[in-house]
């Protein structure tokens, strides 16, 4: 019974890849230095998995930025604007595609969006109707040779062609992207020929099997994978589905002409019995029985029982044991957590520990003696189930006492807007930012010193006040209309609030990749959530004391806090989200009481939390909408509620965005050149909108004319009296020498368009 993983965290135990990437981008490290760091990390990660008992080692899951971008480069899918000859991208071309380039020869980055319903972002392939494909990059072959040389049994990993095309976008005019399949398959076959004699297995990731697919799409799987299987004879092929059950795709998956099918039994556990009934006689089954997306220990007894039930039908030689999906989505190693509470730590497993769980499950199902490990596992699960730390009766009673009026503003938007215009007096096309300003090395060092006790409260507050004062002065000099305090006290928009909520705990090294070199350290919800005291009020009011302009109160919304945390799995997510909403509601009420007139409650993860199956989406959207309104509805009509969303497909949830009933929503729109506003136009979105005119994920500095042109496109959809001007997202990851000129240009763009209208 073979064990394998679908992928492993890339950044390293100490985020070595992140640091080296950023040094390379700053010109402080060369390409050879970056390549050496990457090679060392790959070797270390392969060895970690092998030592934990993983039989098939994934190769191809590593990336300098994103695996979908890697696949685009592999097959020569390079947008024309990058001027790449022969479809072969250099390392710097690759990073231009991911990050864009500023300066005289500046070029915008490719679009980025969420990877299914995770907090990982992928670079969206740009496809033309006349697109050609070739084997343009063989770096995966080099990595396979590295792994083979040190003695590993290799499973090559790459995106499947159907997922690659369907998750791409049309570069120019709309067309059926699947018409490109006929040209793409020969390039895949050529590449298979280059790697097949070096691998034991090749894994094609087809997570679109967890989506609702049309019959026309389902019919393509058999011919595509039959072609692949017939093109190689000395390697086994696996198709991997994950992030949900197979649903109506089950029969197609069960008859795939390959050697193995991987299924997610954490989110699609209902698939096992029908799969065992319908699976082809020559198809092995990879069982994803360890959660690859959360940090809780697996129930090993339950997992072994599931494997044994499949074993009874298929036999051991047709079973593989694996996590549900790539371990990219969990932190690296629980052993690095030396400060975590011992009891709560005993309930957890990170990537390295999950490899051990996979080995134990395979051994237990195979008849080996694993009783000592099982006894320890049962003790930890029982401890978590019965701990008094997970339940708070006060929170439960408050939830039970909620009434319908707790979920609604006092008046409809049109009445509120009239009151707010009179009260706030903003100009037409008001300018603002999303919230954060550059998190300089000094800011991060000061936070760290305070957290570790090297400086006291007074010194910490003095530094933060000075930084806030500097942020306010810069914004006033730039000419922004609605200011922010810059958020220097916040390490992360979710972790910061979790640190101030009961029911949360925190890791020291629990980093996971969000995109590129950007890593986040999600807080952990282990119990019922509440807010014991005000969190942001003093910081916001200090900023307000420095300016006559309005300064926004900045909060993270309940759905985003839920989605970007590791959430307890012993109660419905909707219950946890309502608990968080009440905690945020208390903060909103205190901000308003202190005199704050504009409060932003960010919900960038609203779309991210949407279930992949349409049949499950309405239930989620209903409670997600209610949780946002619960957090925001306690204010008076004159208080303006903002929200922010980015990098998602708005057209799929436009009804729910409207149902949030925020007075103003700011959205990511610059990379798509305002394409996203199409859904707002079709829906006739009723409230105010700030489509981003400045791509903050790129170092490029947009000029005023460029942003003015985007604003004029936005005016074709949004009336001037309901249009705001802002960047795509927060500015914490950028440098001041990028931020200030960009914002000055943004204010000039708004002034130009104001003159025209």
Automatic annotation (TrEMBL):
SUPFAM superfamilies linked: UROD/MetE-like
EC category name: transferase
Biological process according to GO: L-methionine biosynthetic process; methylation
Residues the entry annotates as binding Zn(2+): 644, 646, 668, 729
Record-linked NCBIfam families: met_syn_B12ind, PRK05222.1
Pathway linked to the protein: Amino-acid biosynthesis; L-methionine biosynthesis via de novo pathway; L-methionine from L-homocysteine (MetE route): step 1/1
Protein name: 5-methyltetrahydropteroyltriglutamate--homocysteine methyltransferase
Cofactor or coenzyme needed: Zn(2+)
Gene3D superfamilies, sorted: 3.20.20.210
Family statement: Belongs to the vitamin-B12 independent methionine synthase family.
Keywords: Amino-acid biosynthesis, Metal-binding, Methionine biosynthesis, Methyltransferase, Repeat, Transferase, Zinc
Cofactor binding, note field: Binds 1 zinc ion per subunit.
MF (Gene Ontology): 5-methyltetrahydropteroyltriglutamate-homocysteine S-methyltransferase activity; zinc ion binding
Function: Catalyzes the transfer of a methyl group from 5-methyltetrahydrofolate to homocysteine resulting in methionine formation.
Residue ranges of domain Cobalamin-independent methionine synthase MetE N-terminal in the record: 3-312
Positions contributing to Zn(2+) 1 binding: 644, 646, 668, 729
A Pfam family hit: Meth_synt_2
Domain spans labelled Cobalamin-independent methionine synthase MetE C-terminal/archaeal: 429-751
């Amino acid at each position: 019974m073979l064990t394998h993983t679908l992928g492993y965290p890339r950044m390293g135990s100490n985020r070595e890849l992140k640091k080296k990437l950023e040094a390379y981008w700053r010109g402080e490290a060369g390409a050879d230095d970056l390549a050496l760091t990457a090679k060392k990390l790959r070797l270390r990660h392969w060895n970690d998995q092998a030592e934990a008992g993983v039989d098939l080692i994934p190769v191809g899951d590593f990336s300098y930025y994103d695996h979908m971008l890697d696949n685009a480069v592999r097959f020569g899918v390079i947008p024309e604007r990058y001027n790449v000859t022969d479809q072969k991208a250099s390392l710097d071309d690759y990073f231009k595609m991911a990050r864009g380039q500023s300066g005289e020869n500046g070029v915008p980055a490719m679009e980025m969006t969420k990877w299914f319903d995770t907090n990982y972002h992928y670079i969206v392939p740009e496809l033309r109707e006349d697109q050609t494909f070739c084997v343009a990059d063989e770096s995966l072959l080099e990595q396979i040779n590295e792994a083979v040389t040190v003695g590993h049994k290799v499973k090559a990993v790459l995106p499947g062609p159907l997922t690659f095309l369907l998750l791409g976008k049309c570069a120019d005019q709309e067309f059926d992207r699947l018409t490109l399949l006929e040209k793409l398959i020969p390039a895949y076959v050529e590449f298979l020929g280059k790697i097949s004699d070096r691998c034991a297995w090749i894994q094609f990731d087809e997570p679109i099997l967890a989506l609702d697919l049309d019959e026309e799409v389902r019919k393509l799987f058999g011919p595509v994978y039959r072609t692949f299987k017939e093109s190689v004879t000395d390697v086994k092929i696996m198709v991997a589905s994950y992030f949900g059950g197979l649903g109506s795709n089950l029969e197609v998956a069960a008859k795939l002409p390959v050697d193995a099918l991987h299924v997610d039994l954490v989110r699609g556990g209902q698939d096992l019995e029908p799969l065992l009934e319908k699976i082809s006689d020559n198809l092995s089954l990879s069982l994803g029985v360890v959660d690859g997306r959360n940090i809780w220990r697996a129930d090993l007894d339950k997992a072994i029982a599931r494997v044994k039930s499949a074993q009874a039908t298929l036999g051991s030689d047709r079973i593989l044991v694996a996590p549900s999906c790539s371990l990219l989505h969990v932190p690296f190693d629980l052993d690095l957590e030396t400060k975590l509470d011992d009891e709560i730590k005993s309930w957890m497993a990170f990537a390295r520990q999950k490899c051990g769980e996979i080995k134990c499950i395979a051994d237990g199902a195979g008849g080996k003696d694993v009783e000592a490990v099982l006894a320890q596992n049962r003790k930890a699960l029982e401890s978590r189930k019965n701990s008094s730390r997970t339940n708070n009766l006060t929170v439960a009673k408050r939830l039970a006492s909620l009434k319908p009026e707790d979920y609604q503003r006092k008046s409809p938007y049109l009445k509120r807007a009239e009151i707010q215009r009179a009260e706030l007096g903003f100009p037409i096309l008001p300018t603002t930012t999303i919230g954060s300003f550059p998190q300089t090395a000094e800011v991060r060092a000061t936070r760290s010193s305070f957290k570790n006790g090297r400086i006291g409260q007074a010194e910490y507050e003095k530094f933060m006040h000075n930084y806030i004062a500097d942020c306010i002065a810069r914004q006033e000099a730039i000419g922004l209309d609605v200011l922010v305090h810059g958020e220097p006290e916040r390490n992360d928009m979710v972790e910061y609030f979790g640190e101030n909520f009961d029911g949360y705990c925190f890791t020291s090294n629990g980093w996971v990749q969000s995109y590129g070199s950007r890593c986040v350290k999600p807080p952990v919800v282990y119990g019922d959530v509440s807010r014991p005291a005000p969190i942001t009020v003093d910081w916001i009011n200090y900023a307000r004391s420095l300016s006559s302009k309005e300064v926004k109160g900045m909060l993270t919304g309940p759905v985003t806090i839920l989605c970007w945390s590791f959430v307890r799995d012993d109660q419905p997510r909707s219950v946890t989200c309502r608990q968080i909403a009440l905690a945020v509601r208390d903060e909103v009420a205190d901000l308003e009481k202190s005199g704050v007139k504009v409060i932003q409650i960010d919900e960038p993860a609203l779309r991210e939390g949407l279930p992949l199956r349409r049949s499950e989406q309405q239930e989620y959207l209903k409670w997600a909408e209610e949780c946002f309104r619960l957090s925001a509805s306690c204010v008076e009509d004159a208080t303006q509620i903002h929200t922010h969303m980015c990098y998602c497909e708005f057209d799929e949830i436009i009804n729910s965005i409207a149902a949030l009933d925020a007075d103003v929503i700011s959205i990511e729109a610059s990379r798509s050149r305002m394409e996203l506003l199409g859904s707002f136009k079709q829906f006739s979105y009723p409230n105010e909108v700030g489509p981003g005119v400045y791509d903050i994920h790129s170092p490029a500095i947009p000029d005023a004319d460029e942003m003015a042109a985007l604003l004029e496109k936005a005016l074709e959809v949004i009336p001037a009296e309901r249009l705001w001007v802002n960047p795509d997202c927060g500015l914490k990851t950028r440098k001041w020498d990028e931020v200030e000129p960009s914002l000055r240009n943004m204010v000039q763009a708004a002034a130009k368009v104001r003159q025209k209208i």
